[in-house]
Amino acid sequence: MAPSKSSIKNLTALDSAAFDCGVCECPLKPPIFQCEVGHMVCSECKEKMAAAKTCHVCRRTLAGGYKRCYGAEHIVECLKVPCPNKANGCSAKIARYAQSAHLQVCQYRPYQCPAEGCTFADRHLSALKNHLKNTHKWPSTKVYDGTSNLALVDGFNVIIPCPGSRPQPTDIWRSFGPSVYHMLILKVTRESYGRVVTPVHIRARDAKECRLKLAYETPCGTHRLEYAFNVPSTDVSASGGGGLSSPDDRFDFVVPKSVQPLDMDTIKVAFSCWYL
């Protein structure tokens, strides 16, 4: 009688490097190749070392090059590890080599605070919004469908887009609850020629891309300048790169000092956004 199949629980790998490529040190994934002694390499490194005549570890002659190792492929496919976001509720168990790809789409990965040096993280975007407001004192403003007039201070300004038209004050919490699905951060930097507004869209996991329109008017109201542009998105998670977007990904909106002088505490801009 054939023995029944069983799963091995509470397995501990004393040396996880045993499942890494001997050249690039990345987790091994099929197809896997080895020398005649058993030193393993991934397919990419095998191709890069096609001209090599000896093993990268033992220096034995490779007669015909590295050979396919089907046994190791079966092992790495069978060994599953829990998602690093298990504490946040993710129950997925994935092959070790697929962990990085899973983290890119995991619905339970936490949002990290984009403030430099801050280690706060939470899986709810609304918690991040409260953290930015209460801990870092970044001013927070709710905006609704249509155009909103904003007074932006130097530094970081948090904008919370809310669906629909502006409700009555007693209806706000009941209508929208504590959930936040989108957040924009407008960073205002004071330069010699005026103020520069740099927007970043912080999205929920399945949120759409954001398009933003900013505008300003001359004090007498005779001239108006507005720009509409796509805003770079981030989920400020470790797997998403953490932090805000790089300068190369950003569009800066400039309010010249001839329109709103530098000695003003705030700048006034018209704001509207929608999702693509």
TrEMBL record:
The enzyme's E.C. designation: 2.3.2.27
Occurrences of domain SIAH-type (ranges): 78-137
Domain of life: Eukaryota
Catalytic activity, as annotated: S-ubiquitinyl-[E2 ubiquitin-conjugating enzyme]-L-cysteine + [acceptor protein]-L-lysine = [E2 ubiquitin-conjugating enzyme]-L-cysteine + N(6)-ubiquitinyl-[acceptor protein]-L-lysine
SUPFAM superfamilies, A to Z: TRAF domain-like
Transmembrane segments: none
Limits of the TRAF-type domain: 81-119
Keyword annotations: Metal-binding, Transferase, Ubl conjugation pathway, Zinc, Zinc-finger
Gene Ontology cellular component terms for the protein in this record: cytoplasm
Tagged with keyword Transferase: yes
Pathway annotation from the record: Protein modification; protein ubiquitination
Keyword Manganese: no
Leading EC class: transferase
CDD domains linked: RING-HC_SIAHs
ZnF TRAF-type: positions: 81-119
GO molecular function: ubiquitin protein ligase activity; zinc ion binding
Family membership: Belongs to the SINA (Seven in absentia) family.
Protein name listed in UniProt: RING-type E3 ubiquitin transferase
Organism name: Lolium multiflorum (Italian ryegrass)
Source species taxonomy: Eukaryota, Viridiplantae, Streptophyta, Embryophyta, Tracheophyta
